[in-house]
Design a protein that fits this description.
- The structure holds two protein chains of two kinds.
- By secondary structure, chain A is mainly alpha-helical.
- Chain A has two domains: about 120 residues, Four Helix Bundle (Hemerythrin (Met), subunit A) (Up-down Bundle), CATH 1.20.120; about 40 residues.
- Chain A is built from six helices and no strands.
- In chain A, helix 1 packs antiparallel against helix 2 and helix 2 packs antiparallel against helix 3.
- Chain B is mostly helical.
- Chain B is built from four helices and no strands.
- Helices cover about 80% and strands about 0% of the residues of chain B.
- The radius of gyration of chain B is 18 Å and the shape is elongated.
- Classes of the chains: A mainly alpha, B mainly alpha.
- Chains A and B meet through helix 1, helix 2, helix 3, helix 4 and helix 5 of A and helix 1, helix 2, helix 3 and helix 4 of B.
Chain lengths: ~170, ~110
Amino acid sequence: MPITQYIFFFLTFVAIFSAILVVIDKNPVHSVLYLIVTFFALAGHYLLLNAQFLAAVHIIVYAGAIMVLFLYVIMMLNLNKEIEPHKKNIPKFAAVIAAGVFMLCLIALLTNAQKGMLPAAQNENIGLVENLGKVLFREYMLPFEVSSILFLAAMVGAVFLSKKEIN
Amino acid sequence: MNNDVILNIPIQWYIYLTVILFSIGVLGVLFRRNAIIIFMCVELMLNAVNLLMVAFSRYLGDSGGQVFVFFIMVVAAAEVSVGLAILMMIYRNTKSIDIDDLNKLKW
C-alpha cells in the first residue's frame, strides 16, 4: 500500500473520530477542542490534495479565528459546565436513525459519481497561491469585491446585535 | 506526492469521507439541544462540502472549485460572527441557549 493511502486513512480516522466526539461530548469546551482537531485533519487532507493555499487559509480562518470566537462566547456565557437537562430518549433515537438513513441515501446517490469523470491527467499546480491568485483576481474579481461588502455588513450587524440596549 | 493522490486514492473514498462527516453534522444538529453545539455541527457540514469541492477540483484539474471553497470560507466567517452575536442576545434575554426554550415561533 503506498504511503499516500496510509496518510489518507490516518487523517480520515482522526477527522471522523473527533467529529463524533464533537457531537457526543457533554462539555462544550471539549467539543470546541475536538472540532479544532477535525479542522486540522481536514487541513491535512487539503495538503494531500496539493491545495496549499486553502490549507493555510483553512487553519488561519477556522482554527485561528472562528473557533476562538466560539471559545470566547462559551466562556462569556459561562457554559463550561454541562447544563443540558436530561431529555427523553425517543428524540435521540429518531435523530440517530434519521441521520443514518440520510447517510445511506447520500452514499447510494454518490457512489457512482466517478462515471463521466476525466482520467487524471491534470495540472498539479492548481492549488498553489500563484495559480489561485490569478484565477481569483481575473475571473472572480467581482465576487471578491462583493464579499468585502458582506464582511462590512456582518461586522456592523454583529456590533449592533450584541450591544446593550440604552433605554 | 504531487500526482500520487490521484493515482492511488479513488475519488469514491473522498465521497465516502465527506458523506460521513456531513452525516455526523446532521446527527449533531438533530441530537443536541445546545445552540452553540448545533452551530458547530453546521460548521462541520460546511467543511465536509468544502473538502468534497477541493477533491473534485483536484481530480478534474479545475481551479474554480478551490475559489468557491475560498468564498464559502468567507461567507462562513461572516455567518459565524452574526450567529454568535444573535446567540449572545438570546442568552441575555432568556438566560439559556437551550433550543427547547426558544419555541415562541413554533405553531
